[in-house]
Amino acid sequence: MQRVFSGIQPTHGIHLGNYLGAIRHWVRLQEDGRYECIYCIVDQHALTALHDRRAMTDNTYEVAAALLACGIDPAKSVLFVQSHVPAHAQLHWVLACVTPIGWLNRMTQFKEKAGRDRERAPLGLYAYPVLQAADILAYRAVLVPVGEDQKQHLELSRDIAGSFNRKFGVDFFPLPEPLITGEATRVMSLRDGRRKMSKSDPSDMSRINLTDDADRIALKIRRAKSDSIRGIWYDPENRPEASNLLAIYAALAERPVAELEAEFRDTLFADFKTRLTELMVEKLAPITRRMREYLADRPHLDRVLAEGAERARAIATPILEEVYDIVGFLRPGRRET
Ligand code: TRP
Q1: Domain locations along the chain
Q2: Catalytic residue of the set 76, 111, 151, 199
Q3: Does the beta carbon of 125 sit less than 6 angstroms from any atom of ligand 1?
């Protein structure tokens, strides 16, 4: 069985973009049967941006609830919180020692997030992609489902794995492959089809949250930006809003865009929105209902995550021990034979 690993940051306001762009693919891999799936809520990564302890706690529960509500099944996948498994931070250090600074200087996400005042950017933000490599390599995972924006980080993970192997003359870490997730990976804002759907958009009307009920979904689709052209087809250059809604429809219906273009060739925008609302409510209402149930039962979430962490540790700890052997660290209490 091939081992799959992926991570998601605990941020407030999990939305349709997260579901269609990532979580849905995680569920699909889990159900495929050919993979051993390990899914991690990366709170240590979130700490690079967030310094509010209440928000950290609440968001971690929120993301756990969202993953379960969307169909991640803790009996089939290993679901856990990064800080519960010390091997990530421990392996991070070893990998940091085989990663040239020059590689990190090329990371576009760091440049964007650090902004102009790079001197004041935290070390953690700079080291972020090394911790990401440690997440993956702590399980010697080979397949990593991620969005387009994580491609560069994945390439770095491969380079770091290769660097470790070369430096110590071993063939220990497999080089992980990104699995770039397909259609409707980029779900755009409902108010501006040229911008990504994002939790940081000040307008809640720009996104569908996984906590929105049916009425709120209907309202947001009704108010979504449209154009006055009859018929719906995919042309993101000239009709970004129509294209976005069509791509969302296709992803939710699990049907190809071309087939839907034929179906909606003469449909009025308003009528298309009615159809989209029906479909979205049908698909999302069960998720949002389960999400609210999970959120109301934190002791249950605690139990699920504790079990997941135990299973994750059972995989990662022996791998870390091998790494420690490879680099020559002494093991406490063990005699050389
Ligand atoms: N950086 C990823 C993101 O922002 C999250 C992440 C952390 C991740 N560790 C990972 C993704 C390991 C895949 C594998 O989306």
Answers
A1: 2-179+298-327, 204-294
A2: 199
A3: no
Query: For 154-170, what is the mean pLDDT?
Result: 98
The topology (CATH level 3) of 2-179+298-327 is Rossmann fold (3.40.50)
Give tens-digit pLDDT for 23-58: 999 999 999 999 999 999 999 999 998 779 999 999
Q: Flag whether pLDDT at 184 surpasses 70.
A: no
The secondary structure of residue 148, as a DSSP letter, is G
Q: Give the angle subtended at the CA of 79 by the CAs of 73 and 84, to the nearest 5°.
A: 155
Q: Whose CA is nearest to atom 10 of ligand 1?
A: 7
Among 25, 135, 151, name the best residue to mutate to test ligand 1's pocket (greatest count of ligand atoms within 8 A of Cβ): 135
Separation CA 312–CA 250 (nearest Å): 35
94-115 pLDDT, tens per residue? 999 999 999 999 999 999 999 8
Which one is the CATH code of 204-294: 1.10.340.30, 1.10.3720.10, 3.30.360.10, 1.10.240.10?
A: 1.10.240.10
User: In the β-sheet with 78-81, what is the strand arrangement from edge to edge?
Assistant: 78-81, 35-41, 2-8, 143-146, 177-180
